[in-house]
Amino acid sequence: MATGAQPWQLCSAGSAGAAALATSGAASAEGLGRPGQLQDETLGVASVPSQWRGVQGTRGETKSCQTASIATAEACAQTRKHADAEVQTEAPVPAGVLPASQHDSPGLAAFLRRVEAMVIRELNKNWQSHAFDGFEVNWTEQQQTVTCLHTLGYPPAQGQGLHVTSVSWNTTGSVVACAYGRLDDGDWSTLRSFVCAWNLDRRGLNPRQPSVVVEVPSAVMSLAFHPTQPSHIAGGLYSGEVLVWDMSRPEDPLLWRTGLTDDTHTDPVYQVVWLPERRHGHRFHVLSVATDGKVLLWQAVGTAQLQLTQGFALAVQQLPRNTKLRKPHRGETEVGATAVSFSSFDPSLFVLGTEGGFPLKCSLAAEEAALTRRPASVPLRAPAQFTFSPHGGPVYSVSCSPFHRNLFLSAGTDGHVHLYSMLQAQPLTSLQLSHKYLFAVRWSPVRPLVFAAASGEGAQGTLKRLRPLLWASYPPISLPEGDVQLFDLQKSSQKPTVLIKQTQDESPVYCLEFNRQQTQLLAAGDARGTVKVWQLSTEFTEQGPRETEDLDQLAAEVAI
User: Where are the beta strands (DSSP E) in 384-493?
Assistant: First the structure.
């Protein structure tokens, strides 16, 4: 067991041990060379207790600090300024009034009696004069020339080489929309298309960035804004479908579509029109025409479906034979429709343009069943009532006059504009516009004798959208750059009043539309994918005296 040793004991033991080691060492030294004995020795255990822990112990200190005392002070200020001012005009001086006694009453009465007969005679002459008939005060600034206000386009569509196939103004006249597609022999199976709209009244308008862009899986061939809903627009596709979009919902714009059923067109839809219901004028149907020979009327049903309500078919054997027509090809049973225009005076009367080149007067009230083998969910009827003398090529556009119930225009690939009367087969007049294809013609909504025509390059490949067999009957035509021609029949019936150069690279102008609200605006679309908005000069927006009477006289002279 280890025992504690006092410091002095430890030193003594140490001395003894040292002596022993010294003695042993000496003995060893003496005995070098011979072995010595080794002995084991056990020594006691030494321990040294720690004195540091007890001395240090647990020591704690408390300290504190204090910032300088917070000083506060209060102060106030007051200012006051008061001023009074008065302004007084000079006292009004009363106008001098002659006393009643100073008036020459007898002299005034004598003067009035003397001139009375002459004044009444002149008033009667003015009342019977027609010098100011049709004159309306116009407080707007006079526009002397036709100018381009906007050049609109969508770069992704133009990058694909897409054409502007149709343009339309909405009911407010502030939004213009265009359809992108192709009118040549492109690859229709994989073509993606667009519908674009620009709000021209929006501040900071970007002509290269439309307000709304709708992507469509097939080429869009025609557009028409709703007559009362500014954001609803209908479109006809190359695939034969008809769709309606709501442009105020850019994330999900599709409202209704026909789908691909037995009722759907089997050829491209080249025009769509909104028609009011007969019993409910605030409701509208969508009418579509296509080169499959069908004219179909669609009604929105449910949330996303357009349902066929009426249908018409153009059969070759049911065409009226009041004029000589080209003999149809063997096996040809349908007449392809390319354009439509409704009368402003009879909502059931409409004119169709056809691939065969002859316009047709048709009626929605027709009851004769159509001779067709194609299936449909509703009975198809034969609408044709009268056949007009044909163009030298397919008719691309027709337009009924908004000022005369019997007049309409047609434009064809023969480069002619024909003015027809509903009362006779032969055209009242025919305008030869050089050797250009004419793709669109429209009457002015404000000038009875003014219309516009769109023309351009007429290479054979440009119009392969129609049936190739039909095109074999017509010779090819080569044309210069595309343009818009404005005609005023009051000035000349043979040449345009103004020629607007829309493009400079031989690109045709495919479509145009007047703005019915802002009548000084005209939109035109071309093959470069550009829409140009033109501001017309005052001579094309202000009706002249007796212009309506001149239009009536034109119709009456030819109808004799």
Answer: 384-387, 395-400, 407-412, 416-421, 429-432, 437-443, 450-456, 483-488
- C-alpha distances in angstroms, 100 versus 93, 103, 105, 246? 20, 6, 9, 74
Dihedral sign (CA 115, 118, 120, 126)? negative
* Total residues found in the chain within this entry: 560
Question: For the segment 173-196, what is each residue's pLDDT rounded down to a tens digit?
Answer: 999 999 999 876 555 556 789 999
Please, what is the Cα angle at 406 between 319 and 346, to 5 degrees?
Answer: 80
Which residues, other chains included, contact 349 with Cβ-Cβ below 8 Å and sequence gap of 6+? 342, 343, 361, 362, 363, 364, 422
Paired residues of 297 in beta bridges: 287, 310
Angle at 452 between CA 448 and CA 457, to 5 degrees: 160
Dump pLDDT digits (tens) for 129-175.
887 776 666 555 566 688 999 999 999 999 999 999 999 999 999 99
Residue environment code for 334-368, b if the CB has 16+ CB neighbours within 10 A, otherwise e: bbbbbbbbbbeeeeebbbbbbbbbbbbbbbbeeee
Task: Report the predicted TM-score, pTM, of the whole model to 2 decimal places.
Answer: 0.71
Q: Which residues of 265-280 are buried (b: 16+ CB within 10 A; e: fewer)?
A: bebbbbbbbbbeeeee
CA distance 225 to 166: 11
Task: Report how far residue 516's alpha carbon sits from residue 522's, in angstroms, rounded to the nearest whole number.
Answer: 9
Burial class (CB in 10 A: 0-12, 13-18, 19+), 525: buried
CA distance 39 to 189: 115
Both tokens of 284, joined, read 């509208």
Residue 546 and residue 478: Cα distance in Å, rounded? 40
Reading the block at residue 543, the tokens are 């009706």
